[in-house]
Design brief:
alpha/beta; Transcription Regulator spoIIAA; 6-stranded mixed sheet; about 20% strand
Length: about 325
C-alpha cells in the first residue's frame, strides 16, 4: 500500500538552513558537526500494538549515505566523494535532525543501513562521532557500509570481508546479527545487504523466538511481497525491484546482472518462508529503496520500508 500523503507530517528541528559543507574536509570533526545545520524531517507516524510491557517510541531512519573523504584517501576516492556528495549533501543534517527528534521524544533511534556511502576514514570517523552522542540507538548494516568505490566489483562475502572489521569497529552494535529488548519488544537486526542471508540465520533467529517476546526485525533490503514488487515495477517504473527473495518468474524482465544480483538463494527463500510462519514477528523495518512503502508481509506482520534519511524521510513508531 502506498503511503497516503495525508499521513505525512512536516516536522522542523532547529534552524532549517544547512551550512555548505564540503565532501572533502580537513577541519576537525566536532567543528564540522557544530557547523552543520538542521533540516526538517518528513515524519510518517504509525501506531503498533505488539504487546510492549510499557508504551515507547522509536524513530526509524535509513540510508543517510555520508559521502566524505579527505587527505588520507587516494585521488580516486576523493573524486568519488565529490560526485556522490552531490546527491547526499544533506545526509549529516538530516541524521542530526533525527537524533534531536528522537531525543525530544525520548525515543530509540533505529537505523537500517547505508549510514555511509562508501568506506573512508572520514565517513567512519563520522559514524563514531555521531554515535558517541548519548542517545538510545540500534542499527543494522547496508550494502554501502562495505562499498569501497561504489559498484566497482561484485559484492559478495569476499568483498565484504575486505572492509568488515574496520567498519564494524566504528558501529555501536554487531552488524551481522544482534538483538536488543526494549520494554518487552525484541528488536532483531540481521544482515541481508547483498540480497541473501547467512547460512545459520534460522538457527540464530530461533533463539530469539525462544525468548517468547514480540519481535521487530531490522535489515537493510526489504523482502519480496507482491504489493511491494508491484509498487516498484508498475507504480515507480523501476527496472527491478531491489528486494530480497523475488521469485524467478517475477524477475524475468530483469537485466541479467540485476537478476543474478537479486536472485535469493535457497537458504534465503527458506528463511523468508520460515519467518512468515513466526507469529511472534510483528513488524519488519528496512530501507534501501530510498522511498517510503508499507504493506503486509505475513499473517502477523507488516513490512515498513522507510525512504532516504539523506532527503529527510523518517518513520515514528508508537509501540504499545
Ligand atoms: Fe541506500
Ligand atoms: Fe542500500
Amino acid at each position: 500500500m502506498q503511503i497516503n500523503r495525508r499521513q505525512f507530517l512536516q516536522y522542523g528541528v532547529g534552524a532549517s538552513v544547512a551550512t555548505v559543507f564540503s565532501p572533502i574536509v580537513s577541519s576537525g570533526l566536532s567543528e564540522a558537526l557544530a557547523e552543520e545545520g538542521r533540516e526538517s524531517l518528513n515524519v510518517v507516524k504509525f501506531k503498533l500494538n505488539v504487546g510492549a510491557t510499557k508504551p515507547f517510541t522509536a524513530i526509524h531512519i535509513s540510508d543517510t549515505h555520508f559521502a566524505y573523504a579527505d587527505e588520507r584517501n587516494d585521488e580516486r576516492k576523493r573524486k568519488l566523494a565529490e560526485n556522490r556528495f552531490r546527491y547526499f549533501s544533506k545526509g549529516l543534517s538530516y541524521f542530526n535532525a533525527a537524533v534531536e527528534y528522537a531525543k525530544e521524544k525520548d525515543a530509540v533511534l533505529l537505523h537500517t543501513g547505508d549510514l555511509i556511502d562508501f568506506v573512508s576514514e572520514k565517513n567512519l570517523d563520522l559514524v563514531e562521532e555521531v554515535y558517541k552522542n548519548d542517545f538510545s540507538r540500534f542499527s543494522s548494516s547496508g550494502n554501502h557500509e562495505f562499498s569501497q568505490y561504489v559498484g566497482e566489483a561484485r559484492e559478495d562475502e569476499a568483498y565484504k570481508a575486505q572492509s568488515f572489521d574496520r567498519v564494524q569497529k566504528s558501529f555501536p552494535n554487531d552488524l551481522k546479527f544482534c538483538s536488543r529488548v526494549i520494554n518487552g519488544v525484541n528488536f532483531v537486526a540481521f544482515d541481508d545487504v547483498y540480497y541473501y542471508v547467512a547460512e545459520n540465520l534460522v538457527e540464530l533467529f530461533q533463539k530469539e523466538i525462544d525468548k517468547g517476546l514480540p519481535i521487530v526485525t531490522m535489515c537493510h533490503v526489504p523482502f519480496y511481497t507482491p504489493d511491494l514488487f508491484k509498487y516498484m515495477i508498475v507504480d515507480r517504473k523501476e527496472q527491478c525491484a531491489y528486494v530480497t527473495g523475488a521469485p524467478d518468474e517475477a524477475m524475468k524482465e530483469y537485466k541479467q546482472d540485476r537478476f543474478q544480483q537479486q536472485r535469493g538463494d535457497e537458504k534465503t527463500v527458506k528463511f523468508i518462508e520460515w519467518l512468515k510462519g513466526q507469529s511472534l514477528v510483528k513488524a519488519l523495518l528496512c530501507g534501501h529503496l530510498h522511498c517510503n512503502f508499507e504493506g503486509p508481509f505475513s499473517d502477523s506482520a507488516r513490512q515498513y520500508v522507510v525512504g532516504g534519511n539523506f532527503k529527510g524521510d523518517a518513520y515514528e513508531f508508537s509501540f504499545e
